[in-house]
Amino acid sequence: MSSKVAVLVAGSWGTALASVLASNHPNVVIWSRNEEQVQEINLKHMNSRYLPKVKLPESLKATSNLEEAVKDAMAVVIVAPSAAMREVAHAIKPYWHKDMLIIHATKGFETETLKRMSSVIAEELGCNEGDMVVLSGPSHAEEVVRRCPTTVVVASLNDNAAAAAQKLFINADFRVYTNRDMVGVELAGALKNIIALGAGMSDGLGFGDNAKAALLTRGLAEITRIGVEMGANPLTFSGLAGIGDLVVTATSRHSRNWRAGSMLGEGMKLEEVLSSMGMVVEGIRTTKAAFSIAQKYNVQMPIADQLYHVLFENMNPRTAVEALMGRLPKTEMETMTLETWEQWHS
Fold it and tell me: What number does CATH give the domain 5-180?
């Protein structure tokens, strides 16, 4: 089998992961539709639009030809935006084979169907969802590409696939753990973006550390609540994909979601925020999906609900905070039904 590893697409996170892989393997190809970007990676070893002032490994090759990137690859790492995931998965179907390791590192939902990314890919490729791998965890592209110490998790129901992905990525700067809870890892990675938006909004409003600490804590409870309802292991949310990714995304200026929330808190309109960012802010689409998911599963997600009202119904951010603070008194710990208890301990 070929030793080629393909990475789709050449955004900031895809480029950072391709850089890690190229440090480990001699034959790594990254795909982009943008021919100018391809030439810059190949000739200057840079991707200045997404990761300015960073040199990429000279062995990393780029192409705008999808067949050239994917055909006969032993592994394909898909890092397309959630809105484009189905299109990209459909496009690689002619080159997919049963021995090809499929890894995705996209944190979001398909808003039209409310499906996780692994479900979308599996539908398009006609493969077993449990055989693919999800990569997630606290990992800013800007730090990964500079080889700052980073730790992530790869999740799959197929232990061999998870071990293969772990071996593919792990090195002295990039530590990789395995996990069998695909659902939990995917949900944690997607839903924490909503809380990161809220944390940025809180900072933009000048509410301070107390408010942000409460937001992160109650946000994690919210994520865990819906996660368990959807079949996840609650322990996953106290791990790298859960609290680890939540903290890094909700507290760092590297975070697109935090920056977008901060601008909203400072009074900018959503259209202005998206225009100034120039990159995908997954938390915005995820908030829309989570609003529908909470209704589908009849689970309370008050933070996601209020952010939905701010993003899509023009609610003033201060009004949203007042609504959260004015909720009826509750106990902090969740009351579990027998069914939920058995699910947690099965």
Answer: 3.40.50.720
